Amino acid sequence: MIVAYMMPRWMLFFQVKMRQLEMEDEVMQFQTIILMLMRIERVNVEIILEWLERYANIFKAPITKCLNNYEAGAWEALEEMKEEVSYMQLIRIIESLQAAVEKIPIKEAFDELDSEREYYQAKRKETNDRLISRKGMIGKFIGFAPMVSMFVLYLILPLVFIGLTSMSNSFKSLNSMMKK
């Protein structure tokens, strides 16, 4: 009963975790795209946004809206996108894009991107290692469960049952001896 009651909450928690992982993956993908594009000479912020839009999934709507509003004012369009997005790593990318709009070369605007990317890769590797070890523990539990259940069901429970029946027979015989 409690499991059925808590199931929607667990599903929502699971969906939130999965969405966070998807957002992290997408931002890592954006960083990779930017790292490739920033080395090309004639790349500007609009071209970077077009490439990000092509590969966006979760953040597609804000990027598309930003591209549509880009001609009216690049800084304002990026600022509006920054207000729509709540994911901090993407906000950092947007701030770097805003710096690149102000005639700072794109290479200088994204100079910390390499170190940031390495940090998130290390963090992701650690998370994956913990996930693998947790799955290993679950696998060991599932692997030993049949052996333990067989040991309990076929050895311990019959012995306890036999012990209890013999003890009850002994008490009955003692009671019958006491009554005589």
Task: Outline the structure in words.
With 180 residues, the protein is mostly helical. The protein has a domain of 110 residues. It contains seven helices and no strands. Helix 1 packs antiparallel against helix 2 and helix 1 packs antiparallel against helix 7. The longest helix has 67 residues. The protein is rod-shaped.
Based on the model shown, name its key terms.
mainly alpha; 0% strand; 180 residues
C-alpha geometry: rod-shaped
**Separation of the first and last Cα atoms:** 53 Å
Elements, N to C (H/E): HHHHHHH
Low-confidence stretches: none
Q: What is the topology?
A:
Layout: H1 2-37, H2 45-55, H3 60-69, H4 74-84, H5 88-101, H6 106-109, H7 113-179
Helix pairs in contact: 1-2, 1-7, 2-3, 3-4, 4-5
Please summarize what this structure is.
The chain is mainly α. It has a domain at 2-111. The chain contains 7 helices and no strands.
